[in-house]
Amino acid sequence: MLFHSFQCEDRTQAEAIEKHIKNMKSKNYIQNLPKYPDIILKLKQKYTPNSLC
């Protein structure tokens, strides 16, 4: 089931963010993603394509 979606720069970044979210294993964390867009911005900064190489 899709709860929230957002654009990533590439597939690698999307997969890294998805893995991070799944590793959190927190219902509250997932529910807060749409409420607090700054969480997504921080994840995008943390998992920039250049930092994943």
Number of helices: 3
pLDDT below 50 for ≥5 consecutive residues: which ranges? none
Average pLDDT metric: 88
Overall tally of structural domains: 1
- What share of residues is helical? 55-70%
Strand content: under 5%
Strand-and-helix sequence, N→C?
Answer: HHH
> What Rg is obtained from the alpha carbons, in whole angstroms?
11 Å
Which term fits the overall shape? globular
Number of strands: 0
Please summarize the sheet with the most strands: none
Class derived from helix and strand content: mainly alpha
Q: How far is the N terminus from the C terminus? A: 30 Å
Work out the oligomeric state of the chains in this entry. single chain
Q: Could you please describe the fold and organization of this structure?
A:
The structure is a single chain. The protein is mainly alpha-helical and 53 residues long. 62% of the residues lie in helices and 0% in strands. The protein has three helices and no strands. The mean pLDDT is 88.
Blueprint of the fold:
Layout: H1 11-24, H2 27-35, H3 37-46
Helix pairs in contact: 2-3
